[in-house]
Amino acid sequence: MGGRVTRVFRNFNVENRARREIGKEKPTPAPRHRTARLDTMADSPEIKEEVLRKDDRFLTLLKDVYVESRDPPVQVKDGGGEHLPSKQEEKRLTKLGHLEALDVKKVSKGKISLVEALTLLNNHKLQPQIWTAEKIAAEYSLELKDVNSLLEFFIPFTVMEFPKETKKAITSHKPKQLT
Q1: CA-CA distance, 151 to 131, in Å (whole number)?
Q2: Confidence (pTM)
Q3: Where are the alpha helices (DSSP H) in 53-94?
Q4: pLDDT single digits (tens) 60-75
Q5: DSSP class of 93
Q6: CB of 98 within 8 A of CB of 76?
Q7: Using an 8 Å Cβ cutoff, are 112 and 120 in contact?
Q8: In terms of C-beta density within 10 A (0-12 exposed, 13-18 middle, 19 or more buried), how is residue 156 classed?
Q9: How crowded is residue 95: how many other Cβ atoms within 10 Å of its Cβ?
Q10: What are the boundaries of the region Disordered (predicted)?
Q11: Which residues of the chain have pLDDT under 70?
């Protein structure tokens, strides 16, 4: 209901208001900046004469200038299409176990592959006294602080088997039959 009321007031006397706006005189434009008036001054003969006149002093200075330019030697780009790295990174061969087909063969120093990460985490979990953070850092060319963070925040999954009694209890339960 509120929409009908507002529509009535909005549409009241629309034609008269529109005619009144159209009939108003146009506002006077703002004054132009004086640089815009240079176009009219360019038509004057004094300015044309000044522009076309040659200055002897500038001509003598221009004759004294000698410019010699040489193109830089052209470098031939080979069309191999590969971009060579700007800085050669040291690479190391990965220490792969039985998952050799799933992993990369070379890794930059200071980094490890996914299979290596899982392997070292599992080794540390099973034998923490042998696979210490220092030994892992030396073995995989990593920084000690990175290895400590890796061992602290990433833990591999463990597989747990339930006792047989629990399995029997679960399977002995008969499901309800729908009627």
Answers
A1: 11
A2: 0.37
A3: 56-64
A4: 988 888 888 888 887 7
A5: E
A6: no
A7: yes
A8: middle
A9: 15
A10: 19-42
A11: 1, 35-42, 76-105, 163-179
